[in-house]
Amino acid sequence: AGRVLALSAADGATIWPPLAVGGAPLAMALEPGGGWGYVTNTGDGFRVTKFDARRGGGLGEVRVEGFASGLALWPAIRQVAVLHTWSGTVALVDAQYNRPDGRFAVKSPGFRRAAGTPEGATAWGVGRDGTLTRLDLRAKVAAATVSVSAWDAAASPDGKELYCACPDSTITVVAGDKAVRTIALPAEPRGI
After folding, report:
1. CA dist., res. 21 & res. 102, Å (int)
2. pLDDT digits (tens, 9 = 90+) for 5-53
3. How far apart are CA 32 and CA 109, in angstroms?
4. What does the pLDDT read at residue 19?
5. What pLDDT was estimated at residue 21?
6. How many whole angstroms separate alpha carbon 97 and alpha carbon 30?
7. CB 180: neighbour CB atoms within 10 A?
8. What is the pLDDT of residues 63-115, one digit of tens each?
């Protein structure tokens, strides 16, 4: 069983009691206001758990029928995209009512991680092969792929660039569906 901890940035003290989740919590997404979030629950029947980020405690689970490895939040419509590890499946969760809200498949060997963008209608999937897939959550399609060798990715605050942690000790910056520059690092980044 896994657990989620909320720690104070000031002193590292636990803010609320640990939240038990049924499996390995590989990914987490928080809504911008910090009131609630979702965490993957990979070892417990392929679920995601919604939790109260201010007071702690679970707010329910949703079965997503796949090994969830990445989460991206679309705050405007309170939807969470759940990317699956072993397939190109994206499950959608209605965060307001905490229930399944559809799914779609894209051509991918499966996803390692996900990166949401501030506007939310776009998410990026980091494939198990390192390829990036731009997902249009509104149309429920893969809008583009970018060939980089990424471990993880995060969107810039304005959503115009994607920063990708790569195994060649670089951060690759993607904009306009293409790699535009690299930033050399002293060691291989495993996350971002």
Report:
1. 23
2. 888 889 999 888 888 887 778 888 988 888 999 998 866 657 899 999 9
3. 30
4. 86
5. 81
6. 16
7. 11
8. 887 788 899 998 877 899 999 888 889 999 999 999 999 999 998 889 999 99
- Cα distance between residue 46 and residue 40, in whole Å: 8
Residues in the chain: 192
- Name the DSSP letter for residue 35: S
DSSP states along 86-132 = SSSEEEEEETTTTEEEEEEE-S-S-EEEEEE-TTSSEEEEEETTS-E
Q: Residue 149 and residue 160: Cα distance in Å, rounded?
A: 20
* Count of CB atoms situated within 10 Å of the CB of 15: 13
Q: What single DSSP character describes residue 183?
A: E
Rounded distance between C-alpha atoms, residue 57 and residue 80, angstroms: 19
